[in-house]
Amino acid sequence: MDDFKLDRRLESDSDAVMRTGLCELRLSKDARWPWLILVPRRADITEIFELTPLDQVMLTFETDMVASALKKITGATKINIGALGNIVRQLHVHVIARFDGDANWPNPVWGFGKAEPYVADKRDAFIETLREALSS
Amino acid sequence: MDDFKLDRRLESDSDAVMRTGLCELRLSKDARWPWLILVPRRADITEIFELTPLDQVMLTFETDMVASALKKITGATKINIGALGNIVRQLHVHVIARFDGDANWPNPVWGFGKAEPYVADKRDAFIETLREALSS
């Protein structure tokens, strides 16, 4: 666990929100969708099935917690959850709020178009709302 | 559980492989990628966080079992796991074997191009190999 080091691309493409039990929770810098990323603090893990069973259960419950908070605060049509890792191999789980008619709806967000930056105030307010939802 | 009825689109787009503890395991009819789908046998569930905690753990372990078997029998570069449901709302989890240079690599499979049908013999052989891997 001490050997864990966040992948550089994940670090540059997202902002820290909080640490959950197993994971670092981060917000994608792409403002087109409310897009969270959970990164288990385990070194050299690429696939979910490489985690211990206990870590898998932790990841499941942390994903659950984040997905239901995201649904609640955004009123999303659908939450999209994905662990792809075709580009960044460090295990990370995407939790994204999707809305009927959003960019690339109903297709996936990954690999679509160009990221749009957040306005800093809006990003900070969203992170604050999210932290509150996760601690209530 | 008795009220569960497989969504018609999932039924027409995939073939039955086996029943796992919680889920129906199915093979997508799109031969471009080895593409499995787990459908929890629970009525009226759209999001993973709507499942009970026990069912979430079951789904996690069945996904783990299927993903590691798929990796083993295909030698995939990366397993992609996703629960999107933007089109078909009945909860289902995709487990897909991806290869460097495959159709749409490194982007997602969903919404890309047109499905290519399996040759029946090849599909049956793959299902057989998968069943064996899952029971060993």
Automatic annotation (TrEMBL), chains A, B:
List residues of the HIT domain. 36-105
PROSITE patterns (alphabetical): HIT_2
Q: From the Swiss-Prot or TrEMBL record, what is one GO molecular function term? A: catalytic activity
Write down the InterPro entries for this protein, in alphabetical order. Answer: HIT-like, HIT-like_sf, HIT_Hint
Q: What's the domain of life for this entry?
A: Bacteria
Family annotation (Gene3D superfamilies) = HIT-like (3.30.428.10)
* Protein name (Swiss-Prot/TrEMBL): HIT domain-containing protein
* Native source species: Rhizobium grahamii
Q: What is the lineage of its organism?
A: Bacteria, Pseudomonadati, Pseudomonadota, Alphaproteobacteria, Hyphomicrobiales
